[in-house]
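A reminder from the course coordinator: this example appears on the midterm review sheet, so study it carefully.

Given structure:
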């Protein structure tokens, strides 16, 4: 699994290598633009414009939302990724920090209409994913939603089929989302498969208790 230095080294070639994997329809980034496009459309179709991006990388998704007037906040641990994203979004609040240790304090003081995380949370164990997503859910405005786009599957059998097809390319260190297994712990979680190895998970804001 890559650490912050590994992502620093990957940063300048990131968009190209992801684009190639997407264009050739190969794991792990087959469906990448479709996943980002789906989240982009859903965020803009909703009323609010405060967006938090977890592991924003070179800022491909959030720069497009920024261009449409969204206020962008984010956290990433790679200084080079942050530099590249900042060039595209000079007015965004981009914090450096390891999200496995939680969110930067500055980001926890705000509330968001959309929280997006694309191809970043598979670095967390399922237990940490659940705890982190619950924490993020508490930062949503009423009517807001978390959008996770990633290598993701409805069932473990579908994950196994993708692993067989990927062969030696399969990265067994990454902990991909399996909807069936996460759903019982995350009330309201929805899954939309978008490609054989990619999907969108949505977790809406908790409804306020009336009393
Ligand atoms: C595969 S890239 C995805 C980037 C972008 N979201 C996209 O869809 O292209 C993963 C990003 O998450 C960041 N990342 C991974 N683990 C992280 C962690 N524990 N804390 C903060 N950032 C992390 C990396 O630096 C990198 O920018």
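Designed residues:
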């Amino acid at each position: 699994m890559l650490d912050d230095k590994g992502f620093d080294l990957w940063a300048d070639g990131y968009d190209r290598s992801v684009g190639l994997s997407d264009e050739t329809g190969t794991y792990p980034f087959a469906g990448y633009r479709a996943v980002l496009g789906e989240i982009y459309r859903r965020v803009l179709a909703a009323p609010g414009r405060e967006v938090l991006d977890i592991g924003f990388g070179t800022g491909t998704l959030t720069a497009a939302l920024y261009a449409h007037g969204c206020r962008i906040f984010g956290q990433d641990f790679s200084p080079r990724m942050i530099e590249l994203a900042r060039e595209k979004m000079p007015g965004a609040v981009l914090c450096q920090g390891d999200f496995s240790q939680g969110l930067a304090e500055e980001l926890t003081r705000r509330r968001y209409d959309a929280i997006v995380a694309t191809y970043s949370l598979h670095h967390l164990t399922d237990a940490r994913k659940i705890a982190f997503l619950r924490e993020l859910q508490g930062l949503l405005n009423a009517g807001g939603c978390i959008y996770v786009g990633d290598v993701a599957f409805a069932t473990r059998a579908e994950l196994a089929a993708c692993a067989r097809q990927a062969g030696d390319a399969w990265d067994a260190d990454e902990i991909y989302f399996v909807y069936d297994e996460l759903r019982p712990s995350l009330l309201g979680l929805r899954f939309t498969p978008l490609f054989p190895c990619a999907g969108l998970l949505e977790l809406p804001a908790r409804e306020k208790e009336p009393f």
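The mean pLDDT is 96. The pocket of S-adenosylmethionine is lined by residues 7, 55-57, 60-61, 75-78, 81, 98-100, 118-120, 123 (CB under 6 Å).
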